[in-house]
Amino acid sequence: MLTFILHLFIGATLAGMGIVAVLVAGLATAWTLGGAVVVGMVVAYPVARTVARAMQGG
Questions:
Q1: How much is the pTM?
Q2: Tens digits of residue pLDDT in 14-43
Protein backbone atom coordinates (compact mmCIF):
# COMPACT_ATOMS: atom_id res chain seq x y z
CA MET A 1 0.00 0.00 0.00
CA LEU A 2 2.85 2.36 0.80
CA THR A 3 4.35 1.74 -2.64
CA PHE A 4 1.07 2.71 -4.30
CA ILE A 5 0.77 5.94 -2.33
CA LEU A 6 4.38 6.85 -3.03
CA HIS A 7 3.89 6.02 -6.71
CA LEU A 8 1.07 8.56 -6.92
CA PHE A 9 3.21 11.36 -5.51
CA ILE A 10 6.50 10.42 -7.17
CA GLY A 11 4.77 9.75 -10.50
CA ALA A 12 3.06 13.13 -10.48
CA THR A 13 6.36 14.82 -9.64
CA LEU A 14 8.33 13.06 -12.36
CA ALA A 15 5.55 13.59 -14.91
CA GLY A 16 5.51 17.29 -14.05
CA MET A 17 9.26 17.50 -14.45
CA GLY A 18 8.94 15.80 -17.84
CA ILE A 19 6.26 18.24 -18.95
CA VAL A 20 8.38 21.21 -17.92
CA ALA A 21 11.38 19.77 -19.79
CA VAL A 22 9.30 19.24 -22.94
CA LEU A 23 7.86 22.75 -22.77
CA VAL A 24 11.27 24.35 -22.21
CA ALA A 25 12.67 22.40 -25.16
CA GLY A 26 9.89 23.85 -27.34
CA LEU A 27 8.40 20.47 -28.25
CA ALA A 28 4.88 21.17 -27.02
CA THR A 29 2.72 18.72 -28.95
CA ALA A 30 0.12 16.37 -27.53
CA TRP A 31 2.28 13.31 -28.24
CA THR A 32 5.40 14.65 -26.55
CA LEU A 33 3.48 15.89 -23.52
CA GLY A 34 1.66 12.57 -23.23
CA GLY A 35 4.93 10.72 -23.64
CA ALA A 36 6.48 12.74 -20.84
CA VAL A 37 3.61 11.81 -18.54
CA VAL A 38 3.82 8.11 -19.42
CA VAL A 39 7.59 8.02 -18.94
CA GLY A 40 7.25 9.78 -15.60
CA MET A 41 4.68 7.28 -14.36
CA VAL A 42 6.64 4.25 -15.58
CA VAL A 43 9.91 5.46 -14.06
CA ALA A 44 8.13 6.28 -10.80
CA TYR A 45 7.29 2.65 -9.99
CA PRO A 46 10.82 1.39 -9.30
CA VAL A 47 11.64 4.64 -7.52
CA ALA A 48 8.56 4.31 -5.30
CA ARG A 49 9.36 0.67 -4.59
CA THR A 50 12.93 1.54 -3.56
CA VAL A 51 11.76 4.40 -1.34
CA ALA A 52 9.09 2.21 0.29
CA ARG A 53 11.65 -0.48 1.08
CA ALA A 54 13.99 2.10 2.59
CA MET A 55 11.18 3.57 4.70
CA GLN A 56 10.21 0.12 5.99
CA GLY A 57 13.77 -0.72 6.93
CA GLY A 58 14.37 -3.34 4.28
A1: 0.88
A2: 999 999 999 999 999 999 999 999 999 999
For the four alpha carbons of 41, 43, 46 and 50, in that order, the dihedral sign comes to negative
Give residues with Cβ within 8 angstroms of 35, minimum separation 6.
Answer: 22
- The helix/strand/coil state of 29 is coil
Residue 39 makes CB contacts below 8 A (sequence gap 6+) with 14, 15, 18
Which residues have C-beta within 8 Å of that of residue 45, sequence separation ≥ 6?
7, 11
Nearest to 51 by CA among 19, 14, 5: 5
